[in-house]
Amino acid sequence: MTVTSVYEILVAKTEDELIDEQLADMAAADPPLPVTAWQPGDVALTLVETDAGALADVHQTVGQLGAAAFLSTAAALADGRWLTLRAKSTFNLDRILATFTTGTGTLTNAAGAGPHTIAPGALVIATAAGLRYRSTNTANVIVPLGGSVAITLRAEGSGTAYNRTGGELSVLVTPANAGMSFAAASGTAWITASARDEESNAALVTRCRARWATLAVAGCGTREAYTFNILSATMDGTATGTSCGVTRVGFLAPPGDGTVPIVIAGATGLLTDGQRDAVRAYINTRRGITDAPGINHATPVSVNPVGTVTFKAGLNTAGNQLLVETAISAYINALPMGDDLSSGFVDQAQVFAAILAAVPGGFVDVDLSAPTDTTIGEGEVAVVTSFAGLTYA
Fold first, then answer.
1. Is the dihedral of CA 80, 86, 89, 91 positive or negative?
2. β-pairing verdict for 390-392 and 306-311
3. CA distances (Å), 258 to each of 96, 226, 249, 288, 298, in order?
4. How confident is the model at residue 80 (pLDDT cuts 50, 70, 90)?
5. Structural domain contains residue 206
6. Which residue, 61, 215, 231, 259, has most beta carbons within 10 Å?
């Protein structure tokens, strides 16, 4: 007999099924108990329903326990803690936590303004949508009279939502010093470490399965082993450090001379040079003895959206526009990069579907000229760097 899922063996019964079973058993008793003349609220019926409800909860819990014993079914459970427990107990792997965007901007005093003092952690910059970034200075920073000074920032929240372009950091929340303004480099050039989201169930399952390859005597010499270690890489090289942010790994055609060409990317596109260098250092101590891994950034392929998104009356709001852009980014950022064995693919129909699902029933028309269907080749990764080409109506 072929069994493909634990659910074929362990089927949780519903409350209604348990009530029916209890009533059938009572009717079949000798002598039989009358079960067809109860009214809503009857004491006996209420007891049967209460008992069945409690028993149904037990069935659900037992079903989750059974599913948690296997990676694929644990990953499908609504409560991700079951998979987290499975990964830790069997593979000694912790789910990678979301990280924080860090970067650098510039404070400038207009002619005749200043000097102004920024106390430790006192500067708060925000986007129009309300994403906040706080300065990480541990000592006073002086913005000179009519001059400028660089200052470092860290997102107040974790995850990829904070990997915004420099131009979006447009609101100086505090301190409100006369004549002082803030600016960050355009695009993502201001970011010194891009953030990632908490490791998804699918990604954690990939690392669990890839870990088997690291048990080989030869060490980190297979693609699976490299994939596991690169995805697990931390900024300080320790097992408990902050993730380097790699979520995608691609392998280029090996030249046959012992070098292993590998390209990497993060949850929202390219990582910073600092993150790449931390991955290199992490892998250097975990590589095969005869291997010479070359780890580099993937080649970005811009798939910035261009077109017009027309909302229904009253729905063209900043919040809904952000939902559209977030949906497009989520689709593009989930795509695998191209490698020597397979290509990635940006499907324009899926971009349309992502937009329509962002605000269900909220559109009159979506007309996009880009991105078109695009093949992502070896060593490439699709990225969205700007939504300036989108017009909302």
1. negative
2. parallel
3. 31, 14, 19, 10, 20
4. confident
5. no
6. 231
Instruction: State the residue for tokens 């909860």.
Output: 57
Percent of the chain, pLDDT > 90? 63
CA–CA gap between residue 126 and residue 170 (Å, rounded): 6
- Both structure tokens of 281: 């250092």
pTM of the model: 0.77
CATH number assigned to the domain comprising residue 170 = 2.40.30
Question: Do 287 and 230 belong to one domain?
Answer: yes
The answer to whether the CB of 300 falls within 8 A of the CB of 270 is: yes
The whole domain housing 318 covers 301-392
- The neighbouring-strand residues paired with 300 are 381
Could you tell me the two tokens for 42? 């009857």
Kindly state whether residues 84 and 62 are assigned to the same domain.
Answer: yes
Domain end point (choices 263, 297, 331):
297
For residues 357 and 363, give the distance between their C-alpha atoms in angstroms, rounded to a whole number. Answer: 10
Q: Give backbone dihedrals phi and psi of 56, rounded to 5 degrees, phi first.
A: -65, -40
- End-to-end Cα separation, the chain, in angstroms: 59
State how many domains the chain has: 4
